[in-house]
Amino acid sequence: MTALPWRDIDTVLLDMDGTLLDLHYDNHFWLEHLPQRYAELHGISRAMADLELNPLFENNAGQLQWYCLDFWSSELNIPVRELKLETAHLIALRPDADTFLAAIKQAGKRVILITNAHRDSLSLKLERIELAPYFERLISSHDYGYPKESPAFWDALQTDIGFEPSRSLFIDDTLPILRSAGAFGIGHLLAVKHPDSKKGPKNTEEFEALGDYRELLQGL
């Protein structure tokens, strides 16, 4: 990938799941573990669980409640927080993400985490991966009441932290979110080529894809 124009970047906005952390944990939990435990807890077959869950997942994707553990605990009548602990051993940093974070902090960039993850999910991951020291702020979209897919999220972020969009870099593994950021005016956007280590490369369409965090250090 082409070198980033670091002289033109003051603020680095980073997603968490699939960007700094391996998306395998979340994919495994939502696509495998939760449906299996839902079936067990409700005394139904896994096939029946999938028939019940898939329409719910599809109808709520991209909305704030999709990322809310309280919503899913109530909707499914299962203890989602506790179930997430059962697979917490899968939480892992993506290769060299910590090297990148240390380098941009050392370079004096303003570094802010912006995630759609529920605060409980964020806390769970921060207990296992030491991310907090690298960041000025750790922001959940639930703090604002809008997911990152929404233009209202970016307005709220601007009001909250006061940054220059054109002089900001944003890295995320979700294309609709990157498009929302681009529409807001974020000047430098990167997608993630391999958000899930157990799957092949992702088609990042119009966005340049980050493969290796060490690639970003050139010219920093």
Features:
globular; 2 domains; alpha/beta; 220 residues; Rossmann fold; 6-stranded parallel sheet; 6 strands
Describe this structure in words.
Helix content is about 40%, strand content about 10%. The protein is α/β, with parallel strands linked by helices and about 220 residues long. It has 2 domains: about 5-20 and about 90-215, Rossmann fold; about 25-90, no CATH class. A 6-stranded parallel sheet has the order 3-2-1-4-5-6, sandwiched between helices.
| CATH H level, superfamily name of the largest domain | HAD superfamily/HAD-like
Distance linking N and C termini: 15 Å
Given as residue ranges, the uncertain stretches (5+ residues, pLDDT < 50) are none
Q: Count the helices. How many? A: 8
Mean pLDDT: 95
CATH class of the largest domain: Alpha Beta
Helix fraction by DSSP (H/I, runs of at least 4): 40-55%
* Second rung of CATH, namely the architecture of the largest domain: 3-Layer(aba) Sandwich
What is the string of SSEs from the N terminus onward? EHHHHHEHEHEHEE
- CA-based shape: globular
Largest sheet features: 6 strands, parallel
Topology:
Blueprint: E1 11-14, H1 24-42, H2 46-60, H3 69-76, H4 80-86, H5 97-106, E2 110-115, H6 119-128, E3 137-140, H7 151-161, E4 168-171, H8 175-184, E5 188-192, E6 209-210
Helix pairs in contact: 1-2
Quick structural gist:
The chain is an alpha/beta fold and 220 residues long.
